């Protein structure tokens, strides 16, 4: 198992045993085979839901997103790589194209990729996907966590260019980034309508409280 989920605790199987990324707790779980022979423990990294919206979504009931060991992923808004590192644990034989706009943050992301070869950092602007179109391939999952007023639009633009026909998209909406004065529920409905009007099907939607205020996670698929 590459993911550990029990009650209010979530963790991922560490692809680099003994190595932490952001000071998270490491722990081991013993495994038992069918003949009840106990084997060496599997090391996990505690996944902090207050530092990763994907962890918060899983803890709040996200069920239909499974990241395979060979998945190809495009991650928009990679930042320093907290969530990216946990996806790296899940997609152990795959590849994460991690787009980040800030040159300062990119330095930390590059350092992370030196220990995790399935992360490919790309300095780029998610609102201009054609600028990095020659740097990646079609992906199984497109993950967007870019806190901008046009985050839904840039998410759809990237999906139209990079997502495989049977792929999924995950969009983390921060209502205050779209309209600081608007009611979050109204903004969530507004963005959901945009997705549906552009040929997207909402598979799941999960609010992220108490870990993130005024946030929602949309899991979607696209009709090509």
Topology:
Elements: E1 3-6, E2 9-13, E3 26-32, E4 38-46, H1 53-59, E5 72-76, H2 82-90, E6 95-100, H3 103-115, E7 119-123, E8 139-144, H4 151-162, E9 163-174, H5 175-178, H6 184-197, E10 200-207, E11 215-222
Parallel strand pairs: 5-6, 5-8, 6-7, 8-9
Antiparallel strand pairs: 1-2, 2-4, 3-4, 9-11, 10-11
Structural class call reads: alpha/beta
Distance between the termini: 33 Å
Main sheet attributes: strand count, strand direction, barrel closure: 7 strands, mixed
How many DSSP helices? 6
What share of residues are in beta strands?
Answer: 25-35%
* Mean pLDDT across every amino acid position: 94
Helix content: 25-40%
This entry's quaternary arrangement is: single chain
Spatially, the strands of the biggest sheet line up as: 7-6-5-8-9-11-10
Q: What is the 3D form?
A: globular
Q: What's the SSE pattern?
A: EEEEHEHEHEEHEHHEE
Number of strands: 11
Give the C-alpha Rg: 17 Å
């Amino acid at each position: 198992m590459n993911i550990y989920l029990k009650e209010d605790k979530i963790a991922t199987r560490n692809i680099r045993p003994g190595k932490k990324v952001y000071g998270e707790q490491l722990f081991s779980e013993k495994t038992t085979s069918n003949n009840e022979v106990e084997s060496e423990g599997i090391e996990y990294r505690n996944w902090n839901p207050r530092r990763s919206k994907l962890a918060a979504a899983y803890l709040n009931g996200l069920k239909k997103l499974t990241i395979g060991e060979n998945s190809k992923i495009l991650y928009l808004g990679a930042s320093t790589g907290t969530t990216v590192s946990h996806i790296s644990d899940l997609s152990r034989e795959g590849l994460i194209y991690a787009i980040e706009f800030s040159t300062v943050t990119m330095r930390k992301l590059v350092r992370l990729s030196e220990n995790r070869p399935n992360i490919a950092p790309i300095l780029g602007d998610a609102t201009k996907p054609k600028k990095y179109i020659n740097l990646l391939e079609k992906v199984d999952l497109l993950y967007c966590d870019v806190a901008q007023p046009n985050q839904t639009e840039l998410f759809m633009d990237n999906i139209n260019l990079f997502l495989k026909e049977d792929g999924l998209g995950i969009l983390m909406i921060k209502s205050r980034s779209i309209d600081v004065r608007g009611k979050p529920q109204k903004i969530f409905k507004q963005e959901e309508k945009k997705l549906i009007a552009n040929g997207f099907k909402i598979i799941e939607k999960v609010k992220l409280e108490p870990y993130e205020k005024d946030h929602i996670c949309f899991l979607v698929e696209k009709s090509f």
